[in-house]
Amino acid sequence: MRTLFDTRRRELAAWLAAEDPRWKTAVADVPRELFLGEAVYRAGDGPDGTVWEPVRRDGMTAEQWSRLAYEDATWVTQIGGVLAEDAGGGLSGDPTSSSTLPGLVVRMLEAAGIGDGDRVLEIGTGTGYSTALLCHRLGDGKVTSIEYDPAVARRARSALTAAGCAPTLVVGDGLAGYEPNAEYDRLIATCSVRYVPAAWMWEVRDGGTITAPLAGWMGGTALAHITLAGDGTACGRFPADDIGFMFARPHGRPPLSSYLIGLGDERDSLIDPRLLDDSLGVFVAQLGAPSAQKLGLGDEIILLDVATGSQATTRPCAGGWTVRQHGPLRLWDSVEDAVLAWQKAGSPDWSGFGLTVTQEGQRVWLGSPSGPSWNLPA
Ligand SMILES: C[S@@+](CC[C@H](N)C(=O)[O-])C[C@H]1O[C@@H](n2cnc3c(N)ncnc32)[C@H](O)[C@@H]1O
To answer: What is the DSSP letter of 256?
Structure first.
């Protein structure tokens, strides 16, 4: 007999905009409720920002829980290392694990071009939901998934077992890859990296692909999809829009110490600082200053580089904006260079850019691999 959960699951699968019907079948068959476990977090407003309230399955009716499980929504399952089922009350902090919205999981799987017979390495098992979709499509023997956090990995293992899946599950830093099951045809990451880790380049076969969200400390993101050539390099153009995933743990923003802003020499800004509030604009700006963090909004942007103490602060003034810069890196000069090159090229979306990885370095380019380019902090 079909349950409420089966009905909702089929509704979600029918609704998803997947090009490949086999991913829809996987969504229709894999019980997402198993991967949400006993509780998830819901974001609420607190006096000092977001408060994450645990929502427990045993506090809801089956109808309510089935709606939650099959909403095309991301459900955060861990905040600052505390799993939702272990939380005694609301918490503040950053999400450290989640079940990504199924629509985005399927989009990633399709962007990765995963086909029957592929051996796949997934970085960021999380709840195990995307791992289960991979097992459904490819078979357990083709899937290896790495999770950094031991408690998250334990939880994923039991959910996958309950769903009848037995992939290779590894607890560790996915940025180091997993050599015993290499070579892989496809590598897919569901956590963001600042650059492509070297181990991934060694473990994916020639002609194979790496699909990973690229993110930086200003908040700009892009989806990298690169194909490995036979000479140790890889290259690929970004898709037309961006996507956001939490940082791979070793790649997250370093803490800022206390700082005094507004230092340095002042001049007119050549660009509108409000551009950095836009997801495409900040992606371009970040190319110029990849180790800076962004604070402030609108006309009053603050860029801080933790390693060198360099800073840039913008202010509105009659007829435009001024910028003050201080420290060994001229952060705003570099941001302006990137933004002006992009504007000169007609301000294309993400598909105007691509990534080339070589043993010497990693460069995001504009237009073509021989066009203007910027180093990633690899
Ligand atoms: C957005 S969640 C993954 C969602 C998951 N694929 C799903 O469908 O439920 C990102 C996960 O990546 C994990 N992670 C972060 N850094 C990692 C790393 N260096 N290696 C492996 N996993 C990592 C986090 O602990 C988190 O569980």
So the answer is: P
pLDDT at 2 over 80: no
Give a yes or no: residue 23 inside a domain. yes
Number of domains in the chain: 2
Question: Is there a single domain that holds both residue 270 and residue 131?
Answer: no
- Ligand 1 centroid to Cα of residue 326, in Å, is 37
Place of tokens 């009905």: 7
Residue 149 alpha carbon to ligand 1 centre in Å: 8
The rounded percent of the chain whose pLDDT value lies above 70 is 100
Q: Are 338 and 364 in contact (CB under 8 A)?
A: no
Q: How far is the CA of 3 from the centre of ligand 1 (A)?
A: 30
pLDDT-derived band of residue 365, with 50, 70 and 90 as boundaries?
very high
| Alpha helices (H) along the chain | 4-15, 21-29, 32-36, 62-69, 102-111, 129-138, 150-162, 198-203, 279-288, 331-344
Pocket test for ligand 1, best of 34, 155, 191 (most atoms within 8 A of CB): 191
Note whether 187 and 52 are same-domain residues. Answer: yes
Task: Output the residue whose Cα is nearest ligand 1's atom 16.
Answer: 248
Determine, yes or no, domain membership for 215: no
In a domain, residue 367? The reply is no
Would residue 120 count as lying in a domain? yes
Task: Tell me the best of 149, 175, 200 to mutate to test the pocket of ligand 1, counting ligand atoms within 8 Å of each CB and taking the most.
Answer: 149
1 pLDDT higher than 80: no
Could you tell me what percentage of the chain is helix, strand and coil, using 3-state DSSP and rounding each to the nearest 5? 35, 30, 35
Same domain, 172 and 36: yes
Predicted confidence (pLDDT) per residue in 216-268, tens digit: 999 999 999 999 999 999 999 999 988 889 999 989 999 887 778 888 999 99
The parent domain of residue 275 ranges over: 265-344
User: In this structure, are 185 and 270 located in the same domain?
Assistant: no
pLDDT computed for residue 297 by the predictor: 87
pLDDT at 200 over 80: yes
Q: Is the pTM of this model over 0.85?
A: yes
- Ligand 1 neighbours (beta carbon < 6 A): 96-100, 105, 123-124, 126-127, 129-130, 146-149, 152, 173-175, 190-191, 245-246, 248-250
